[in-house]
Amino acid sequence: MAETSWLSEIPQLSRGELRDIRKGLDGIYRDFSREYGETIEALFDPLLAFLVWFEKLLLASPWFLVIAVIAGLAWIASRSWKLVLGVVVSFFMIGYFGMWDDTMRTMSIILVCTMMAIALGVPIGIAMARSDRVQSTVTPMLDIMQTMPAFVYLIPVVMLLGIGKIPGVIAVIIYAIPPVIRLTNLGIRLVDKDVLEAATAYGANSVQRLMGVQLPLAMPTIMAGINQTIMMALSMVVIASMIGVKGLGQPVLKSITNQYFTLGLLNGLAIVALAIIFDRVSQAYAKRSQQHMEGLDNG
To answer: Which of 143, 213, 230, 260 could be 255's S-S partner, Cβ–Cβ 3.0 to 4.6 Å?
Structure first.
């Protein structure tokens, strides 16, 4: 009978053993958060201060000045009047439908998260490209970060830091950073070895090869990674609103709980508009940088 049971049912822990394991792990993390939570939270105080300042700056600035600056940046990146016109119209319509403040809050979160993801992700990607050992260590971690359900990130972060902006920023960064790491690594590894050998022959050291050859040639691929990071950060906005991150995500969450279809639709369209704008501008910049590098190569 025992053999038949083993063949028909997979061996598993008893409920009591499983409960004891869960309680033990939960207790360890709870003790860790109580012991070090305030210290870790204090480390993020400068980031919180910058985020609050940036959000207040966007909210306090005149709407036409904000649109002008964003349109100017879009022009610098793309050199496309059509794209600039689309940016201006999109932001004007967002304000016209009463979503300006939430959009500015969302933009502040997304831009800060993107800057943090770039600052952390590009060096990690460079380290992966320069060392197979680092790549073999980091890749499984990226696999977990990309496949773990987004809601799961909120649990340990909220237990450690509570509810607010910083837990939301950390959750967004963890969710959104893998593409920029992966594509930085890929872009540098795809640089032609003959080009590197030529740079070495001209006396370039390791740092000069990285800064003067590898990163410029890998920039279109890196920009594609940044583009995907921005898209994933925007997709995390609604989930981050569950832990107190203000912005376009909160009205969407409210519309789900109260079945307000129009409220959810309008705020959802505002998120889509932001995503399309960031996507088109970053793609245009990547395309222009690639054409610039090809022009230098031909020259």
So the answer is: 260
Whether 51 and 168 have beta carbons less than 8 Å apart is answered as no
Is 6 a member of any domain? no
Amino acid identity for residue 170 in this structure = I
- Cβ atoms of 278 and 78 within 8 Å: the answer is no
- Asked whether residue 93 is assigned to any structural domain, the reply reads no
pLDDT digits (tens, 9 = 90+) for 256-269: 778 788 888 898 89
Whether 157 and 121 have beta carbons less than 8 Å apart is answered as: no
Residue by residue, DSSP assigns 195-257 as: HHHHHHHTT--HHHHIIIIIHHHHHHHHHHHHHHHHHHHHHTHHHHGGGT--STHHHHHHHHH
pLDDT single digits (tens) 143-188: 988 888 877 777 888 878 877 788 888 888 888 899 999 999 999 9
Rounded CA separation 188/121 (Å): 13
- Domain range for 193: 43-63+98-289
Residue 187 located in a structural domain: yes
Q: How far is CA 47 from CA 51, 109, 112, 166, 169, in A?
A: 6, 11, 9, 8, 10
pLDDT(1) > 50 = no
Q: Flag whether the pTM goes above 0.85.
A: no
For the chain, how many structural domains are there in total?
1
Task: Give the residue with greater pLDDT, 33 vs 63.
Answer: 63
297 in any annotated domain: no
Over residues 249-257, the mean pLDDT reads 83
Q: What are phi and psi of 41, to 5 degrees?
A: -60, -40
Rounded-to-integer distance, Cα 186 and Cα 294, Å: 19
Task: Report whether 166 contacts 113 (CB < 8 A).
Answer: no
